[in-house]
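Allow me, if you will, to draw on your knowledge of protein folds for a short while. I am sending you one protein, given as its amino acid sequence and as whole-number tokens for its backbone shapes. Kindly check, if you would, that the fold set down in the tokens agrees with what the sequence suggests. The record follows directly beneath this note:
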Amino acid sequence: MIDIVCCPTPFLVGLLSSSLPKLKDLPVEEALMVNLGSDRFIRQMDDEDTLLPRKLQAALEQALERKNELINQDSDSDSDDECNTLNGLVSEVFIRFFVETVGHYSLFLTQNEKGERAFQREAFRKSVASKSIRRFLEVFMESQMFTGFIQDRELRKCRAKGLFEQRVEQYLEELPDTEQSGVNKFLRGLGEE
């Protein structure tokens, strides 16, 4: 697996710490390396502290701290129920994060005269009131993750509703009509900007 680390494609790879000396000799370009055993960065990109707005990052960290409360409970930490609870908690935090940062995307999918759906990128980004969130979206909208997400939505013929789409629908229904065009509320329940 160590050779795969040199591939310029976004992915998450786990390596044994015994492979670290070999890894340091490879031509790895843009990679964030973390020693999960010691919770330390081995190599940083120098944008980690600026990518997410501070209040957004703090809200995510605060929500994820609840996992520590679950781990520290007196119950058996290896039980399936607790593992499912932890997985559910982490999943919910990130689903909520993405719903509240990009969940309004569907308001900016328009149909052209040929019946093709097209995403209005700049209008989507500008619809966010928070300057720091707009800066985050500028970077995030250039990622392969976001591009693939939007391309999938543009090409979809039927609208199958997975968990994310269900949460987006709920989120948009909860927004007052006056906010749907500007999407002014962010991170309700996670923190405020």
In short: The chain has two domains: 1-41, 52-187. The chain is about 50% helix and 5% strand.
